Amino acid sequence: MNDDDRKKEIIKELILKEEDVIKKFERLVKLAANFIEIEETTGRVLIKNEIDLSYPEKIFLIALGKYFAHHYEIIDDYSISIQELGEELGGIPVSNFSKSLSKHVDDKIAK
Fold first, then answer.
1. Beta-strand (E) ranges in the chain?
2. 60 within some domain
3. How many CB atoms lie within 10 A of CB 13?
4. Which of 6, 16, 74, 92 lies in disulfide reach of 69, CB 3.0 to 4.6 Å?
5. Which residues are CB-neighbours of 31 under 8 A, at least 6 positions away?
C-alpha cells in the first residue's frame, strides 16, 4: 500500500455515506423542532415563545431555520442580512444584538 492509499484509509473514518448524512440531518431537524418553526409561505423562522434564549442562541437558530427553509425550497438563499435578522428577532434594533453577531463571526458561524 502506498502513502496515498494509507492516508485515504486513515481519513476514511471521517467520510460519511449518504445514508449517514440523511440520518444526521433527520436528527438535527428533530432537535430543531423543539426550538423553531418555519412559515411555509415566507421561510420566516419563528422561535418558540416558551423558550428563554440568549441572542447568540437565537441567531444560531434563525440561521439554522433559514438553512432548512432553503433545503425545503421555500427560499432561494439562506443568507440573511442584519436588518432581516432584526426583524426575525421580533423587530429588535440591530444595536441590541450586534455584539452577539460579532461573536458568531469570530467563531466562524457567520460571515
1. 36-38, 45-47
2. yes
3. 6
4. 74
5. none
Q: Which residues contact 51 (CB under 8 A, 6 or more apart)?
A: 35
Predicted structure pTM score: 0.72
Number of domains in the chain: 1
CB 63 within 8 A of CB 110: yes
Gap between the Cα atoms of 78 and 12, Å rounded: 30
Other Cβ atoms less than 10 A from the Cβ of 58: the count is: 22
Q: Has residue 9 been placed in a domain?
A: no
Chain segment 60-86, per-residue pLDDT in tens: 899 999 999 999 999 998 888 878 888
In this structure, are residues 77 and 103 in contact, taking their beta carbons and an 8 Å threshold?
A: no
**111 lies in some domain:** no
**Cα(24)–Cα(93) distance, integer angstroms:** 35
Q: What is the rounded CA–CA span in Å between residue 11 and residue 79?
A: 31
Does 6 map to a domain? no
